[in-house]
Amino acid sequence: MSDLVETFAQNAAAAGFVVHRGVAPAIAGAGVSRALYGVASTGSVVLGASPDEPRSRHLLPEVHVALLREDALVADLAALFRAVGGALPSALAIVTGPSRSADIEQRLVVGVHGPREVHVVLEPR
Amino acid sequence: MRVQLFATCLGDLVFPEAVADAEALLRGAGCDVRFPPGQTCCGQPAFNAGHRRAARRLARAFVRAFSHDEPVVCPSGSCAAMVAHRVPELAGCAPFEVWELSSFLDHLGAAPPARNEGVRIAYHSSCHLLRELGVDAAPRRLLARTGAELVDLRRPDLCCGFGGTFAVRQPEISVAMADDKLADGAQADVLATADPGCLMHLQARAARTGGVRVQHLASVLARGAV
Amino acid sequence: MSFRVLDERRLAATDAATLRLLAGRTGAWAAAGDAEALRERAHEIRMGVVDDIESHLDRFVAAVEAAGGRVHRCASAADARAAVARICVDAGARLAAKSKSMLSEEIGLNAALEAVGVDVVETDLGEYILQLAGEHPVHIITPAIEKTVEDVASLLSAVDGVPLEPRAEALAQAARRQLRQVFERADVGITGANFAVCESGSICLVTNEGNGGLVTSLPRVHVALLGMERLVPTLDDLAVLLQLLARSGTGQTLTTYTRLITGPRRAGEVDGPEELHVVVVDNGRSRIGSGPYREMLACIRCGACLNVCPVYRKAGGGAYGPVYSGPMGAVLVPLLQGLERERALPHASSLCGACTAACPVKIPLHELLLELRRDLVEHGVASRGERIAFGLWSLLWSRPFLYRVSTSLARRGRPLGALAGPGRAWAAGRELPELAGRRFRDRR
After folding, report:
1. N or C: where does chain A have the smaller number of CB atoms within 10 Å of the terminal CB?
2. Could you give the ipTM of this predicted complex?
């Protein structure tokens, strides 16, 4: 289990997330969502649309924070789909870092059109 | 070991010295080299241009000229690939045991004379040899055995731009590709290639622009880079 | 009919971009473990669909409808344009926000919507820039590859009415601001579909920017354009293909936003479209799927073949046409538009095979180009002169005696090739090679 957490933390950081353990950062104006799952192999946070989770919450603000319980981590995409496949929400978002584009002269810019800064808070059981 | 030498049409008509070098290398490696006199062309130019009936005529001629009982060795990656992968299907016959020259020499463990001490040589991996026959290490090993200082091309993956009829259907692109290859090869004293098509195209461009010296691999191995 | 080499600036831009993407892909593949096994599996998944599109489509349609979406099956581009226009008009739409869709370019959608009074705005940054410039995309992944930061500054400044600094970060922020209003005001969101999953009826959208998500959460109606062959049977299969798509296209493990949409918004949800329409487009795909070129339908539009192609990096995407370019374009465009019309494309290749080696779903691209060339000859599209020339040449050279005679006559040190036709094309940039005084066979 701790292996999965460390793998996730590493890959999420590599993908551009700011990774927190236990305590959520207090950032004014940030969108905060509870993640359904986290995918360790890719460092992705998985959000599902629901009455409590608008589809646009992780896209509109400039900063987004995802709260992720450690026991909601899965190893890879295949494991994710096995876990969620039977009951897919209307929109499932697998988010791997901040919004980015290299469309202008191949220069990487963040924050077009989604958040430029993304955080994930790992919550131990 | 008896082998049948397939000179290829470009070898026969434009680069006979390279073919002679290939023969010398084979002899030096202990082979008894036979030159089937009925040989002409493997038919690749027609085949690659979509003219299958024309290619079939040449494939059948190849089968009439060559025996299935001895390996065919050929100083051209693209012709070797044509004979290996296309000729039997076109002509309706059994496959040939066919080898591109450097892969055969390497297979025999040949040790060409050390005529390239101190010479910087870049090797151009012609596309058919690299991707259709999977041969890339053998030519480099042979070059190293001759004492050459092997220079890595920056973009060894890129085609030189010959491509048969492509060279005349897309002349501007073809020449631009040659320029890139020649510029890349200019890091070395000589750019060596195992394919007469690549050789002809690169030499022809270099003759116009004054680029790096391009030679057939067989000549570089047999007589040293000149 | 032959391609021109791009001008120096565009050449440098194309080279830099393709090299960056290729390096990314090479690194990602190396880290992926058993790349060959993955490619083979992906090939099987895609060909399993291509070999039986109809029954996969039936399953998909049933699942979409069960999830509350509507499916519109369209045989032709015209049918598809009409279907989307009707959906927009019925919705009373004035503004449509579009996330990138090559299929929408293929069918010429934007003009059809403008004609019924719907303003269409591209939201993918590269596509937005090109739309402002009135140009077509030239690369699958990075469509505005040839535009400079100054070009972009001038285009975006015109929208704002104030001059913008020619710096990528500042321009990206300006685009974000300009397009945020579009997302919020749009009545309809139009997307493509990278994949569609049969078992769940889900549309999978893959972006790095997040515009796919905004376009499918704020507007009231979502229209997803789907090529009928872009299906995968199960979510398990999707997992395999998603891994390959990002790795092959950009070198990422996964694109930033991988989104699975299953039906419109549900009861209690506060955003998301009220209506989901999936427009399934044939436009020649079923015809291709039942013929010898059906492997081309396995394509997942990753762009890997463009990034390794030595011709693409010199000629640029525009040389191939307005929608699809590089090796996949050279195969697909003649198949969609007809060989008669696109006779040059199968020959816009030196058959180096790099594309085939790079393709994550193992489409034998260069072999397909060879087959297309054969079709050109056998269906009488290739020039009669060329057929006669090759025919005569093969008759002479298949007889050793005639080979000797014809080559004896031609040599004596005279340059190879005629002064006209192929000879002239060669001689424009190269010295004509000389025939050797003595053939090899004369020396033995």
Report:
1. C
2. 0.97
